């Protein structure tokens, strides 16, 4: 074809089952009218679809919206979906363009650093840069109360402090460590305890796949049932994930069918929460809280979990990622053979804030899943009651349990009108905190992220500090076919391209070896062996401005001397070394003795070693990127920028 089309397509599918599931408003970008092998998750399976277009109906009418026909072929689907068909396909926003008149796709230009670099400086690999003493104080890294209020459109934040001190933080760099800890804490629950969970996804799976593959002792349903039987209450909030409807409704039913406790009548209630601004939005927070019903102890605090791991399938794995047989025996694998992630366990006043975040969502006057269309009634919620606040006599700001200061940061949409009790103008404290932390970097930045796609402000911050730091190391999950069809490969290129072009030897980008099929799901930013940010937020615009997210940003009080001759913080350095062990397969002791630049170079060695999980990753510019126009990006990765009048009576969204 001599001409190219910019196409946005609204696909509406219907599954002809007893309870049809409509995938409405699924936007798919097409290049040269070609869509092949779209991967769409249906219920608990992955169906491979091929889309074929009949162009005859709009050969002469490309300037206006038209309908057109298509046919689908499908394979690898369960018997439940053998009658899969399409309802309608509508072509929108079609523009005819000639390549000769189109400007080539450009890599976004970040604002230039105030420092000017020579060509040799841009080619530096960081080894010529002297390590400098990083900032160590929590107040240097955390955003201020004024900045938090600003991130909320001028509305103060109730139930959460600016930051808390004296927390005891345990770091889990592999999912099996997290699940075993959850089993221990759930098993230790007693009468009156309250367990609260927020998640993106759930599934009835064993928590300890290696020792209990059937889930008879540590299954999702068994663990929560045990809490209730001992007189504890259970409350879960989960996003109604329509792509994984079956496993989530099964988990919902398993929880809501738990009978009230014979000890005190305590109940288990699972709710789906759809209170979001856009069809593409999701509730993405991943937290657990174990709190007493009432505590009078002067330094007694709840326990919470904050990180990237949901209580669902695919997740259980070890740092060695060699557990295929164990995972399969426990029915853990869904889409992937392995899983990379991390999570915090927090004991201290910060856990009160995680609890309050849950209670704010649960107790909102605007109830979730109201007015559902008939084909989404599988996400209907039971009747439920508001929950009382947590009742602790201990300080809300400090403790002597541990050595870590924590700032809990969040994202709530500023365009959504039903967060009126706790975020009437939204919250972007997570975004603001990330920008401040990146700009504080003096020596290195280490990132693990599921997406790492273009966010203009984050790219600017990295370009600002790259001249002075030794390395930026990023481990990313390559976009699959569906994400490529949503423009994510282009957005990944827009994030990486400018940095690799200007600092080719400082910016190290990796993923996992394709044949190992280990999914990178971590949401981690670690800077200078001092600062750690871990939680649910991905490196994309949605997580920064629109989806509900929660991260814990941690600064340790305990210092250690690094081989680089500077003082750093124990928790951050320990977590970084453990992650480097996972990637390089070197021992903890070997990496602990290395200067950072030498440890970073071991990634290059590991990427060429067949025995490691690591491989180099690069993304190139492609002609088809031009098909993903801004209006399309606004659907798949929206960035919300709100301004408000002084009274808050009017609201503008840019």
TrEMBL record:
One of its GO terms (cellular component) is plasma membrane. Its EC number is 3.1.4.4. Keywords: Hydrolase, Lipid degradation, Lipid metabolism, Repeat. Residues 97-127 are annotated as: Disordered. GO terms for molecular function: phospholipase D activity. It is an enzyme of class 3 (hydrolase). GO terms for biological process: phospholipid catabolic process. Pfam families: PLDc_2 (PF13091). Residues 516-543 form the PLD phosphodiesterase domain. Signal peptide: none annotated. The keyword RNA-binding does not apply. It catalyses: a 1,2-diacyl-sn-glycero-3-phosphocholine + H2O = a 1,2-diacyl-sn-glycero-3-phosphate + choline + H(+). SUPFAM superfamilies: Phospholipase D/nuclease. The keyword Iron-sulfur does not apply. PANTHER family: PHOSPHOLIPASE, PHOSPHOLIPASE D. This is phospholipase D. It comes from Phytophthora ramorum (Sudden oak death agent).
């Amino acid at each position: 074809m001599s001409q190219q089309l910019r196409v946005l397509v609204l696909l509406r599918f219907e599954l002809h089952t007893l309870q049809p599931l409509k995938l409405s408003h699924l936007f798919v970008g097409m290049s040269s009218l070609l869509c092949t092998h779209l991967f769409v998750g249906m219920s608990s399976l992955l169906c491979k679809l091929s889309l074929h277009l009949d162009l005859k109906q709009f050969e002469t009418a490309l300037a206006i919206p038209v309908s057109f026909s298509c046919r689908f072929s499908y394979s690898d689907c369960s018997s439940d979906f053998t009658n899969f068909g399409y309802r309608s396909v509508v072509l929108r926003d079609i523009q005819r363009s000639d390549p000769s008149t189109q400007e080539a796709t450009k890599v976004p230009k970040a604002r230039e650093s105030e420092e000017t670099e020579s060509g040799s400086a841009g080619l530096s690999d960081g080894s010529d840069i002297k390590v400098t003493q990083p900032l160590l104080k929590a107040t240097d890294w955390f955003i201020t109360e004024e900045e938090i209020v600003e991130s909320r459109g001028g509305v103060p934040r109730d139930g959460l402090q600016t930051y808390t001190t004296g927390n005891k933080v345990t770091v889990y760099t592999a999912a099996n460590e997290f699940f075993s800890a959850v089993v221990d804490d759930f098993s230790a629950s007693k009468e009156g305890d309250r367990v609260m969970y927020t998640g993106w996804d759930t599934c009835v799976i064993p928590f300890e796949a290696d020792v209990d593959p059937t889930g008879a002792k540590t299954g999702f349903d068994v663990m929560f049932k045990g809490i209730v039987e001992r007189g504890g209450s259970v409350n879960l909030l989960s996003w109604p994930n329509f792509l994984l409807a079956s496993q989530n409704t099964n988990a919902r039913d398993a929880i809501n069918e738990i009978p009230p406790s014979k000890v005190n009548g305590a109940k288990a209630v699972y709710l789906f929460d759809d209170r979001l601004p856009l069809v593409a939005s999701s509730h993405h927070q991943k937290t657990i809280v174990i709190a007493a019903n009432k505590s009078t102890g002067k330094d007694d605090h709840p326990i919470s979990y904050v990180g990237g791991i949901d209580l669902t399938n695919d997740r259980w794995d070890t740092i060695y990622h060699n557990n295929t047989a164990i995972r399969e025996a426990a029915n853990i694998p869904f889409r992937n053979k392995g899983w990379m992630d991390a999570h915090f366990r927090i004991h201290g006043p910060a856990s009160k804030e995680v609890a309050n975040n849950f209670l704010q969502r649960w107790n909102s006057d605007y109830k979730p899943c109201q007015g559902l269309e008939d084909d989404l009634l599988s996400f209907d919620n039971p009747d439920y009651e508001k929950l009382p606040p947590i009742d602790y006599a201990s300080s809300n700001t400090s403790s002597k349990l541990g050595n870590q200061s924590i700032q809990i940061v969040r994202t709530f949409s500023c365009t959504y009108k039903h967060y009126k009790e706790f975020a009437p103008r939204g919250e972007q404290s997570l975004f603001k905190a990330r920008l401040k932390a990146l700009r504080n970097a003096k020596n290195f930045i280490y990132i693990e992220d599921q997406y790492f796609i273009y966010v203009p402000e984050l790219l600017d911050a990295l370009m600002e500090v790259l001249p002075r730091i030794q390395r930026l190391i990023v481990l990313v999950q390559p976009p699959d076919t569906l994400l490529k069809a949503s423009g994510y490969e282009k957005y990944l290129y827009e994030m990486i391209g400018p940095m690799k072009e200007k600092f080719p030897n400082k910016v190290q980008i990796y993923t996992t070896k394709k044949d190992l099929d280990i999914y990178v799901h971590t949401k981690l930013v670690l800077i200078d062996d001092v600062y750690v940010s871990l939680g649910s937020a991905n490196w994309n615009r949605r997580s920064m401005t629109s989806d509900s997210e929660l991260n814990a940003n941690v600064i340790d009080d305990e210092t250690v001397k690094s081989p680089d001759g500077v003082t750093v913080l124990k928790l951050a350095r320990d977590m970084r070394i453990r992650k480097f062990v996972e990637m390089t397969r070197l021992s903890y002791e070997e990496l602990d003795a290395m200067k950072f630049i030498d440890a970073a170079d071991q990634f290059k060695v590991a990427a060429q070693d067949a025995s490691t999980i690591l491989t180099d990753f690069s993304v190139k510019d492609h002609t088809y990127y031009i098909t993903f126009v801004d209006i399309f990006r606004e659907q798949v990765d929206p960035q919300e920028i709100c301004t408000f009048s002084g009274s808050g009576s009017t609201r503008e969204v840019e």
